[in-house]
User: Fold this.
Amino acid sequence: MADIRNIVILTGAGVSAESGIDTFRGGGGLWEQHRVEDVATPEAFARDPDLVLRFYDMRRAAIQEKEPNRAHAALARLDAEWPGDLLIVTQNVDDLHERAGARRVLHMHGTHLNAWCTACDARSRWTGPLIDRPPCPACGARALRPDVVWFGEMPYEMERIYGALRAADLFVSIGTSGAVYPAAGFVREARELGTQTLELNLERSQGSAWFDETRLGPAGELVPAWVDEMLG
Ligand code: BJW
Assistant:
């Protein structure tokens, strides 16, 4: 890890697993017998909005009961103390990075704690349920949906992410299966740019072969140890 100034960190569900938030593809990856791919799509929302809203209401309520873990805390410390550029690109829709104190965080798949009005396009902070079709605080239309990125939709702030990847000296992927694009492709972008790449995961992921180094173990142990290394 020599000559590193700019760092991009990609996080996935594994970073929040030790906070008690289920991963997507662990434990069968099913919710009430539905695959994530069948609930997290605009088609599913059009076909059965109650099912999809119930799924998100349940998860929005659950994350508010959870607390950041040692991995979130270590990344927040790195964010606070790292003198170079740093960007935590999270696929997670929980707010545990922020609640641990991290500031340089980008939610590429959106956030549970926003509702998006499909009538006026406003985003509003939202902590309660959506199942009863509450009115949009901005325009009053009953057209709110979770502000999350479903399959077939464009993830947020891709230009900013690719810009940070181009400037990075180190790309680190933590707790993600490498099953979902475009995030799964970041390691290849980084390699093509000659950037050092490191993976921290409980087990080998679909992308492990692309990384210069993979360290296996729980994020709550691996991340604090790596952050200690980085901060010397
Ligand atoms: C631990 C641990 C511990 C456990 N410690 N680790 C080829 C190229 C480009 C696109 C595609 C393509 N083929 C198909 C596509 C389209 C599609 C896609 O990827 N489909 C796949 C099924 C193949 N992608 C899209 O549609 C995306 N949009 C898009 O591509 O737009 C066009 C575009 C093209 C090019 C550039 C830009 C745009 C949108 C994807 C949206 C994903 N949405 C979801 C739902 C979000 C809302 C919600 O939360 O409900 O995002 S799906 C779900 O998967 C969620 C996650 O963020 C995402 C990734 O999951 P993650 O985080 O990796 O979790 P898991 O469960 O898979 O893995 C957990 C990992 O943790 C495991 O590895 C464990 O080992 C580890 N772990 N405990 C450390 N204690």
Observations:
- The chain has a mean pLDDT of 95.
- Residues 49-63 form the longest helix (15 residues).
- Residues 12-14, 17-18, 23-26, 36-37, 40, 91, 93, 109, 148-155, 158, 175-177, 179-182, 201-203, 205, 218-219 surround BJW (CB under 6 Å).
- The CA atoms of residues 118 and 143 lie 6 Å apart.
